[in-house]
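Lecture notes, continued. The same structure-token format from the folding unit now serves as the input rather than the output. Read the line below as a description of shape only.
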């Protein structure tokens, strides 16, 4: 019912308890003045059970040498479109590489890596989560890739290309295939650049 109020389709939400999360060592509340959402990828090819993978990522983030407070992402999204609670939407992210950017953006970790494209289910789940963030903080309208905030290859070329084409906007039309939409937008950009 809550998803109906937000105007989005419900997704499968997997709580921290359901994936066996360890308790965080420390937390900070999310800023009341978010700029938006930052998209991430894992940077390695992802296969298998999302719950086991997220537990492994949390261990990697919290164990030495990193020693972070928790899994860095607010939420993680599987290729099946499952949303796995990370730090949660009420806790500050730890994924953007600086306190300033962690305060400014919710971190969504897409469970894909090189040579993997977001599935339609993953894209719909990302759009739904962005809609939820905007419901609680309507001014949080930016959608950025990690590479917009620091030098990195994250969220990977395919996610970044789709993000720039507006595919992750909650109200993006899905009448065309993703490839058709991206090609159309790239053609528009070329036409604009040709005029200058």
């Amino acid at each position: 019912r809550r998803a109906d109020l937000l105007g989005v389709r419900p997704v499968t939400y997997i709580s921290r308890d359901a994936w066996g999360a360890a308790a965080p060592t420390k937390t900070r509340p999310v800023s009341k003045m978010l700029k938006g959402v930052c998209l991430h990828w894992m940077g390695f090819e992802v296969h298998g059970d999302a719950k086991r993978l997220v537990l492994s990522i949390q261990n990697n983030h919290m164990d030495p040498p990193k020693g972070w407070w928790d899994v860095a992402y607010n939420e993680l999204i599987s290729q099946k479109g499952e949303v796995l609670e990370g730090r949660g939407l009420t806790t500050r992210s730890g994924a953007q590489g600086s306190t300033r950017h962690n305060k400014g953006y919710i971190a969504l970790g897409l469970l894909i890596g090189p040579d993997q494209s977001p599935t339609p289910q993953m894209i719909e789940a990302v759009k739904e989560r962005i809609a939820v963030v905007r419901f609680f903080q309507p001014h949080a309208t930016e959608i950025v890739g990690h590479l917009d905030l620091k030098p990195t290859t994250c969220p990977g070329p395919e996610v970044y290309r789709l993000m720039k084409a507006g595919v992750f906007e909650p109200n993006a039309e899905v009448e065309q295939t993703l490839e058709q939409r991206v090609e159309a937008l790239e053609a528009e950009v070329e036409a604009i650049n040709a005029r200058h």
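Point for the exam: The radius of gyration is 17 Å.
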